[in-house]
Structures are given as C-alpha cells and as structure tokens.
Amino acid sequence: MPPVQIAEGIHWVGAVDWNIRFFHGPAYSTHRGTTYNAYLIIDEKIALVDTVFRPFTKELIANISALVDPGKIEDIVVNHIEPDHSGALPEIIKLCPDAKIYCTQKAKEGLIKHYGLECDFQVVKTGDELNLGKRSIKFLEAPMLHWPDSMFSYIEKEQLLMPNDAFGQHLASSFLFDDQVDEHEVMDEAAKYYANILYPFSPLVLKKLEEVQKLGLKIKIIAPSHGIIWRKNPEKIIQAYLKWAKGEADNKAVIVYDTMWESTEKMAKAILNGIVAEGAEAKLYKLSVTDRNDIIKEVLNCKAIVVGSSTINNDILPVMAPFLDDLKGLKPKNKIGAAFGSFGWGGGAVKTIEEKLSSAGVNLIMEGLQVRWVPTEEEISRCYEYGRQIGQKIKEHK
Ligand code: FEO
Q1: What is the full DSSP assignment across 15-45?
Q2: pLDDT tens digits for range 328-351
Q3: Torsion of Cα atoms, 165 then 171 then 172 then 174, to 10°
Q4: Active-site residue, from 80, 102, 278, 386
Q5: Which residue of the set 84, 189, 298, 379 is catalytic?
Q6: Share of residues in the chain with pLDDT > 90 (%)
C-alpha cells in the first residue's frame, strides 16, 4: 500500500500483511492479517518512527522513497525492538548510515544483540525530546508494555501519540483510520490483542494511562504499530483499555470444555441453561473446534470462566492444557470460576482444572461438579442448578 498522510508532514510508510495467520510463532492466531505501521516525519529534519517486519523491507523503502530520499533520514526512533517493528532496521540504516537511533537503554542492548548494529545510539528517557524543527518528538518510557524496551513517542504539535504495540490490533486493511472501517471489527481485534498480549501487564497499563493523564498530554490521534489509527475517537480505545485493565466485565460466563463421549458436553449445556435462567449471558466453546486465542478474547469481557473436561488417564483431555496454561500466563483479572466433567472410574480432570484455574488467579466459587459415565436426568438437573448458582454469583460479582 502506498504512503498515507496522517497529518501535515507525517506519513504512514508501513506495510500491510494480508496473509499472516499466526503471530509470535504459533502463539497468536491472526485471522484478519496485520499491518506493520511505520511513520515518516518530514520537518526541517527527517525522522522515521519504527520500521517493519523484515520480509516487508522493500515496501517500507519504496514508501519512504516515494516521499524523500531515504539517505536524508537523520533520526530513527525505535519504540520497540521486537522484529515485527525492527526487522527492516539493518537495511534502512545502510541507506542512512549517519542516522541517529533514539531508543531506551534496553532497546539499545536488544538491537545490538538482535542485529549486531553499530550505530549512533541516543538513549532516551521519559521527558527527553528530539527537535525536528517545527515540532519535537517527546519520549515516554513504557517498560513491559509489552517488552522491557518499549516506549511511546508523542508529538505535541499534532497531539499525536505513537505508542507502538499499545492500542494496536492485528487487522489488515486497505483503509488506515477508524472512521473508514467497521468499528465492531476494529474493537474485536483490539480486544483480542489486549487479551492475548497485554493482559498480564494490566496494572502497568493503568499506571501508564494515569501517567499520560498527569503529564497532560492531549491526544487527538493514536497511531499504533499494528492496525487502524484512532483519529475519529481515540478516547474509545483509551476507555476500553481502562475497562480491561481494571478487570471490569459483563454479566457473562464463558464455558470452555471438551468431551470424549458427549457426557461432559451434556453437562456443559445444562450448566449454560442454568446460568441463562438467572439472566446472565453464557457462551459455550468446545476447545477442539474453537480457536484458543478467540476464546481468550471472550474471557476479557466475562465475569466467570467455567471449564469442563472428561477425565482421561486421571487427568484432563490433552486439548485443554494449552488453554489453561495460557490463562496462567495471562493472569485474567477479577474472574470467578468453576470446574466440571464426567469420568469413568478414578476421575481427576476436575481437580486438575481447579488447580490450573487457581494458579491463573481465578477465584473458584463452587466445588467442582463431577458425574460418573453418562449423566442421568437427575444429574442433568444438578448441572442446571449448578449453572443457576453460577449465574447468581455472576450477578453479585463486582
Ligand atoms: Fe508488534 Fe511487540 O511487537
């Protein structure tokens, strides 16, 4: 895609990756592709903010070249060293070998380790500024949002925040702005991004948003490093981040299960009916036929996580493990939960689920529910009542 002006003198020069379907190796499904956003600022000096994933280097160079001679770039800002943003840097620096690289100390260390770069590194801290002529770029360190090296860049003149991964979405689009695309699609991908990448850092997200407020940074445009640029309503994504970081959620349960011979599935559906009877919403996901990252996105906006598995070899079905292990790493905030499942002789799945939910910080509100072999009508009624009790707890949970 050719360059797009996002404000006078500031241009998107990144790349659209329509075909990527997994990100972070196999860890994150990207059904809608992604973009690698880089920004060129043409002032008295010329600066590039971030680059792109290495396979898209030619596109970045073509976009820059359509506007200026890349050799005239004097300053390169590296907000984050992950290869999807720094991969093209070694080639770019060959075109402007005297350019200074502005980044955090951790980023400098990371760039040297990743690429063996020997450049004119200018290590910056929060409050430092790079003057380009008519405007300056102000830097704001943002460690662990989501890597130790991360930082935000801000331009007061345009009230433009470039926060790299924060506020981003894995969404390929021929349009670049929030007023040009389907709002539901953008928020859906923003939620998936937050849940699968930023969730464990929620306390830091809250602190950073407070810091931005205290610094009095006025924000008219948020230009992240992935997906759509927020110019119509940047407050929408800021408020969503506040909600997610605080662990606020809807009166909703996500029921995640898998089943050998449909007994656990019968339990899951009866529990769902009980939850719904109490006026709470419930969504049912069979893990073996559902994308794990999509379920984690749903977890973001639910109060209760209810997990069920048949027992095999005194433990959970193997398909359950990646989801439960992901939860442990992501540390979902302020969730209640419960476990259920059928077994033939010894049992064991419910115990494992409870242990794994607890280690993910989920507050278990009910004793696990187990049924031997196929649930009888009476046992289905117990599952329904179990669901009703979960529904009541959901409504009480703040
Ligand atoms: Fe988009 Fe942390 O890289």
Answers
A1: EEESS--EETTTTEE-TT-EEE--EEEESSS
A2: 999 999 999 999 999 999 999 999
A3: -100
A4: 80
A5: 84
A6: 99
